[in-house]
Amino acid sequence: MQTRILAPDDQGLAEAARWLAQGALVAMPTETVYGLAGDARDARAVAAIYAAKGRPSFNPLIVHVPDLTTAERYAVFDAPALALAAAFWPGALTMVLPLRPGSGIAGLVTAGLDTVAIRVPAHPAAQALLRCFDGPLAAPSANPSGRISPTTAGHVADPETGLGGRIAAVLDAGPCAVGVESTILGWQDGAPVLLRPGGIAAERLEAVLDRPLASHHADPDAPTAPGQLISHYAPRASLRLQADSARPGELLIGFGPIKGDMTLSDSGDLAEAAARLFDLLHRADDQGRPIAVAPVPETGLGAAINDRLRRAAAPR
Ligand code: TXA
Ligand code: MG
C-alpha cells in the first residue's frame, strides 16, 4: 500500500474522510501528537489500527469527537467531568468515563471495558476531519507500538521507524504544538486519578477540581494504558537520563544551562521542551549513537516529559 500525504484543505479532508468511511486508516494531526484514526464504530477498522501499530490488543484506544455534545453520546458525564470539559476542551485532556450503553462504539476500542477514554482535540485539522467524517474516531498515537510518538507527518510516513506503507494516508499539518500526549484522567471509587501525565499539567486539573489528584500505581503486567508499560516511547539507541555532560560517543540532548548537541529548550521553557521532545528523540535516534538527556524539572509539563523519558530509557 502506498501511503498518501494529504494537505489539510477541502480536497485533502474530503479524501481523508472517504478513506475513513471505507474502513481505512488515516493519520491525523492533533495538538499533542499525530493520531492513527479509524472509525470507532467499525470493528474492522479498529482491528486494523491494532494491526498497523503492532499493539497488544488489551490496550484500549481514545475516542475523538468534535465537541462535548457529541462526547455525551458516547460517555456519561458527571459534574466534575463537565467542569473539566468546560475548562479544557477542546484541548489536551482525555477523560475515562462510563461508556454510554448502546453508543455503538466497537468493543475493541474499549477492549471490552465499561469505560471509554474520550477527548475533544483542539487542532483545526482534527476538528475539520471530525466534522467532515461526521463520526467518532478511535486514534492512538500514530507510531509502531512501543516506539517514539510522532509529532510530524514525516515521522508517521517513515517506512522504517513509522507507519509508511501500512496506512492509507497522512494528513500533513506540520509539527504538533504541544508535543506530548494528552493528560489522561479517570475516576476510581469516586476520586479523580491521574492515569497519564500529559499536555495539561496535573496542577491545572487540581485547580478546577479543587482537590488533589491521586496518581495511578501502574501494574506493569496489567496496564490500563500502554503509556504505563515500563518500556515505551523507545528509540533504537540506548538512553541515559540526568546527564550533565556527554560521555564519549554519546549524543547529548540539553536543557536550560546544560548545552548539548541539540537542546530541548535553551531558556529552560517546559512547553518548548515538550513540543520538541519526540522530534529530537527521532533525530537523535537517526544518528545511531547512544543518547544522553540533561535533567528536566518535575513541575508542570516536566512531569509528562520525564514520564516519557523514563519509559524511553527503561530496560527493554
Ligand atoms: O494525545 C493523545 O492522547 C494522543 C492523540 C492522538 O489524541 N493519543 C494517544 O493515544 O496517546 P494512545 O492510544 O497512545 O494512548 C491512549 C491511552 C492508552 O494509554 C490507553 O490504555 C488509555 O488511553 N485508555 C484508553 N481507554 C481507556 C480506558 N477505558 N480505561 C483506562 N485507560 C484507557
Ligand atoms: Mg502512544
Automatic annotation (TrEMBL):
Q: Name one GO biological process term.
A: tRNA processing
Name the Gene Ontology molecular function terms of this record: ATP binding; double-stranded RNA binding; L-threonylcarbamoyladenylate synthase; tRNA binding
* EC main group: transferase
Q: What is this protein called?
A: Threonylcarbamoyl-AMP synthase
This protein's GO CC annotations: cytoplasm
Where does it reside? Answer: Cytoplasm
State the InterPro entries in the record: DHBP_synth_RibB-like_a/b_dom, Sua5-like_dom, Sua5/YwlC_C, Sua5_C, T(6)A37_SUA5, TC-AMP_synthase_SUA5
Q: Does the keyword Transmembrane helix apply?
A: no
Q: Where is the YrdC-like domain?
A: 10-200
EC number, UniProt record: 2.7.7.87
- Family label: Belongs to the SUA5 family.
Q: What is its main location?
A: cytoplasm
Functional description taken from the UniProt entry? Required for the formation of a threonylcarbamoyl group on adenosine at position 37 (t(6)A37) in tRNAs that read codons beginning with adenine.
| Residues the entry annotates as binding L-threonine | T32, H64, R119, A139, S182
